[in-house]
TrEMBL record:
This is Ribonuclease P protein component. Belongs to the RnpA family. HAMAP family: RNase_P. InterPro entries: Ribosomal_Su5_D2-typ_SF, Ribsml_uS5_D2-typ_fold_subgr, RNase_P, RNase_P_CS. Consists of a catalytic RNA component (M1 or rnpB) and a protein subunit. The gene is rnpA.
Amino acid sequence: MTPPEAPMDGSAKPGELPPAVSVCAPAQLTVLSKRSDFLKAARARRQPAPSMLVQARRRVPGEAEGIRVGFTCSKKVGNAVARNRAKRRLREIARRVLPEIGHDGWDYVLIGKPGDTAARPFDMLENDLRKALIKLHSPKS
């Protein structure tokens, strides 16, 4: 899939600016930024995956709208460059997967694992998140 700012037919004119907003994202994801939201998610459900840990919690009614997601990587993942790379990858899979599988009214926190998050092939990383979300939202047996 080609991004909107890079047409395949080469019809972009020199000096033409790319669109200000990506037209690819079907739903808006709100990014968690408050520590208290991360702590609430840490006390709720969690699902390990080969390349990440997914924490999820259902918000109380009226707390916020839509799907909210947070990303974190500890220093065990590596230096700042390695942590940022892992978080970029987590952000991209969240952008692709959560609008389609995530539930409205839930908070999700994706936690990177040392080595695995940055080194795992991207399609496998995406499948890991899909499987983790399906397990998180399945009724407990």
